[in-house]
Amino acid sequence: MTNPLERTKPVARRITLHAGVPDAGLREVILARARALGLLGWVRAEADGTVLIHAEGEPGAVDGLLAFLREGPPVAAGAGRVEERTTAVEGHEQFAVRGVPAGVFVVQEHAATARHFDLRLEVGGAMRSWAVPKGPSLDPTVRRLAVEVEEHDMGHNAFEGRTAGGGVLVWDRGAYEQGGRVPWPEALDRGHAVFVLHGEKLQGGFVLQRTRGTGVKAQWLLLKRRDDRARPGSDVVRDHPRSVVSGVTLDELLSG
Length: 256
Ligand code: MN
Description:
Layout: E1 11-18, H1 24-36, E2 40-45, E3 50-57, H2 59-71, E4 81-87, E5 95-98, E6 103-111, E7 115-123, E8 126-132, E9 143-152, E10 161-163, E11 166-178, H3 186-189, E12 192-199, E13 203-212, E14 219-224, H4 236-239, H5 250-255
Parallel strand pairs: 2-5
Antiparallel strand pairs: 1-3, 1-4, 2-3, 6-7, 6-11, 7-8, 8-9, 9-14, 10-11, 11-12, 12-13, 13-14
């Protein structure tokens, strides 16, 4: 016998809820309902008070979420206006809240045997780290080699100064969000991690794609995603060399 569920193709809808006021409680209610319905995708509260939802799964489940939103979820002040359109099924493996920090990140420029940049992402209370010889780029056509290195303590994030063999400068820092279809940080373990940076220099979506090896010394590529923060043709390392903490360049720090 054929299971009728196996013949039901998943569908996807992009839904905008004009709820009036941004409300983290509303986001949580939508998250709970979507998960209860077995839906995949994400919910994001925008600064203008709208809530954006990507929902994919069984057609009946997607309709169930739409009906729930049209009735007006309990915490919303009355029913909001709901807009929806069909979109592509993206293959999400979770229903997640977007726009919520996964932790902090820092990029430190490091003069050692060779100059390089260290990208560090907070994962499980430590800073997972990659040495990026040429540094990050906001140009989505640029692929930068990123060699995984030992995790660092979070206490090292604010370090800037001279070291025995050179020096370290805090080139950028801020919060980051998970951005992909796979739960974070499992995405890193699987070797394809999408994340969104909220730094002073680096903003928007980035991808770390593992190409060779595992663990420390694994080779990855760091890429900027094509989004409204991408800057084709730019060279952020050349144009913005100064520390976000002290305003000095690494040369100034080393000669100071
Ligand atoms: Mn280093």
